[in-house]
């Protein structure tokens, strides 16, 4: 996956427009692997279902995720 993305976040931050050129990606380093289709749904760990993201974009896309030592929202 890191080979595919060159170590950079794969999140598109600006949609492609015909006359402006290609899509613009986030320039941050990729920190996390994100499942495009949630793993809990299909248990799909194939590369096609993974997207390399920086921590910021991963947190935006998956608000359920907790970090080590943190409590999930709504849990005691």
Summarize the structure.
With 76 residues, the protein is an alpha+beta fold. It is built from three helices and four strands, in the order αβββαβα. The longest helix is centred in the last third of the chain and has 7 residues, at 55-61.
| Number of separate helices | 3
Distance, first to last CA = 36 Å
Shape: globular
User: How large a portion of the residues is in β-strands, by DSSP E?
Assistant: 15-25%
Question: What's the pLDDT, averaged over the residues?
Answer: 79
Q: What oligomeric assembly is this protein in?
A: single chain
Structural class: alpha+beta
Tell me the total number of β-strands.
Answer: 4
Can you list the strand order of the major beta sheet?
1-2
Q: How much is the radius of gyration in Å?
A: 15 Å
What does this protein look like?
The protein is an alpha+beta fold and 76 residues long. It has one domain. It is 20% helix and 17% strand. The chain has helices spanning 2-5, 39-42, 55-61, and strands spanning 12-14, 24-25, 32-35, 50-53. The strands form 2 sheets. It has a two-stranded antiparallel sheet. The radius of gyration is 15 Å and the shape is globular.
List keywords for this structure.
4 strands, 17% strand, alpha+beta, globular, 76 residues, two-stranded antiparallel sheet
Detail the topology: elements first, then pairings.
Layout: H1 2-5, E1 12-14, E2 24-25, E3 32-35, H2 39-42, E4 50-53, H3 55-61
Antiparallel strand pairs: 1-2, 3-4
